[in-house]
Amino acid sequence: MQNIKFHTQTDCTHYADVPERFLGAVTPPIFQNSLFVYPTFEKFSRALKKNMQNYIYTRGKNPTVEICEQKIARLEKGESAKCFGSGMAAITSTILTFLRTGDHIVSIKNIYGPTYKFLSSFLPRFNVETSFISGSSIEELRRAIKQNTKIIYLESPTTFTFQLQNLSEIAELAKQKKIVTIIDNSWATPYFQNPLEIGINLIVHSCSKYLAGHSDVVAGAVIGKRDYIEQIFQSEFSLLGGILHPFEAWLLIRGLRTLPLRMERHFNNALKIAKFLENHPKVLKVNYPLLPSHPQYQLAKKQLKGGSGLFSFELKTDNITDNIKKIKKFVNSLRIFRLGVSWGGYESLVHPRAASMENGKPNKIQKAMGLSPYLIRLSVGLEDVEDLISDLEQALSQVNS
Asked: The whole model's pTM is what?
């Protein structure tokens, strides 16, 4: 069954599950042990020499985590995957694997905030420079590349603004220059976008989002060719120890089984709500790639098979003070949408950028990333879409025109 080609829903349900390995258990057990023992010197010695292929210590390889990794690799059309204890552990370990002192990175500007901080504040300690670009054109990227550029870091769509990069063009340029490409694919998930098939080298995920889907797991993953994943495993993964524990892996396996069903619901709900907001007299702009009004709609249709439940919008306003008052009134009037960070769970959330302002002004990272502090991000959940629209409608009615 492992080598048979199935549709995504079947892979999510069954791939890497081998009940006969575990006394016929239809759900794989949680191997909550720290180490694995061997009956002879010879077998122990052989295992140590091939530590990525054998169970030795759970900081390296664990049966429960392995099932999770095999499922994620299959979904992303990759040869191999490695799971981590958080999305940031996956992102930082993957980036560090391909860097040395004096190297250079080109990154999209509007990326996940902690990733931006890692690139802009942490890596310079080790004389690693990052050039941040909008990602709007291949010419801009070409100009940013230097002789010592080792990584191009992507996030498509981008955080909060939901702009896309042309992945096929970037992959071709990076291949010519022998530069490793890494993309955060948490927004689209492998259900709606498969960057490895386009030519991107490595995919990173915050599995806490849609892959797990129930707001009860913190996890990350990196997917790519087997030699890349082995390189990551033997260096930063093993040394830094940001591992995914067996119980969280088991929860993630459970979440993956319903990924296609959930993503279809997230997409349908989000598209209806985005259209509702776009036509609302108190809304200035909606940022959702699958809306025909999005400036990159044609590229979105080419690269994406659908969209997730995450997008942003802005209210109409006359001045800064008025905007903040309107945002506060709107979010405080919501009944179903809850204020919170993160996204991708079953529940609907709202995250106003204004909540991160300092003394009424954009903070340092907001300024550097060029993000409007007045963006309101919605993570549209799995609730009835009519109830969600009614909630948004009544909250908007509380906002003065």
From this structure: 0.94
